[in-house]
Amino acid sequence: MPLYKIINFSPKTQIYIWKIDEPYAQLREEVQLNDRNEIRLNGMKSELHRRGFLSVRKILHENGYSDFDLTYDAFGKPHLKDGKHLSITHSHEFSAVIFSDQNIGIDMEKQRDKIKILDYKFAEFEMTWLDKNAADYMRKLTVVWGVKEAIFKIRNEVGISFNDHIFVQPFEMQHLQTDVILNFNETRMTFSVYFEEMENFTLVYVLEK
Ligand SMILES: CC(C)(COP(=O)(O)OP(=O)(O)OC[C@H]1O[C@@H](n2cnc3c(N)ncnc32)[C@H](O)[C@@H]1OP(=O)(O)O)[C@@H](O)C(=O)NCCC(=O)NCCS
Question: Where does the record locate the signal sequence feature (predicted)?
């Protein structure tokens, strides 16, 4: 079943998760793209990426939209023509879209041990409260990474640094939520973070408080 899960977070916010088990040819046949996105698709080298891109359009269909309702700004942030907010992610065989009345961000990441080698690049603050030797260090780091990607998708501003401006607050995996503070350009904003794991993937979504 390609539509893997719907999270009815609130009447105003829903998350759709797709497990991409259709072959590329099937998706290609089922999805109609506008001219701009047709060109983008044809420029994608990896079939996995193309399937991810098309599966997002399948999610749009589930919600009564099509590719013709979607535009991208100069930074690559997607917008729906009716003014509803959305945020998009795709990772290997999963894709997910969050729809909301407010500005939101989503990210999905495959859990990989190699994230531990990169911890100093994006989790300087979080390493003050994370335990490097804990069994769940990699899983927590994956959440932290996802939060920062999701914040980037919400704010869409040049100059935001994962280490210098985004601070994920301590959490335990079983809590499935935390807060994150963005301190950028003399503005301090707090966001609610929600996360869950599925089949060695981590889904994170972030909403302004
Ligand atoms: C844009 C970015 C957030 C995308 O994240 P990703 O994990 O590579 O890929 P995902 O599949 O999760 O997300 C891709 C989607 O994000 C959306 N997106 C791209 N740029 C965006 C932006 N500026 N704002 C909001 N959303 C954006 C798009 O919808 C895109 O999918 P689509 O083009 O197929 O529709 C990421 O590439 C990036 O630039 N991150 C910030 C870089 C950074 O500071 N890194 C620090 C390293 S230490």
Answer: none
Ligand 1 closest atom vs CA 107: 12
Q: Which domain holds residue 59?
A: 3-102
Query: For the chain, what percent of residues have pLDDT higher than 70?
Result: 100
Structural Rg of the chain based on CA atoms: 17
195-199 long-range contacts, Cβ below 8 Å, gap at least 24? 195/143, 195/146, 195/147, 197/111, 197/139, 197/173, 198/4, 198/5, 198/17, 198/94, 199/94
Same domain assignment for residues 152 and 98:
no
Mind listing the pLDDT tens digit for each residue in 53-105? 999 999 999 999 999 999 999 999 999 999 999 999 999 999 999 999 999 99
Question: How far is the centre of ligand 1, averaged over its atoms, from the C-alpha of 108 (Å)?
Answer: 11
Boundary-marking domain end, from 86, 102, 118: 102
Nearest CA to ligand 1 atom 5: 149
CA distances from residue 194 to 62, 74, 171 in whole angstroms, order as listed: 23, 28, 11
133 and 71 both lie in a single domain = no
Helix ranges, the chain (H): 24-30, 35-43, 47-62, 119-122, 137-155, 162-165
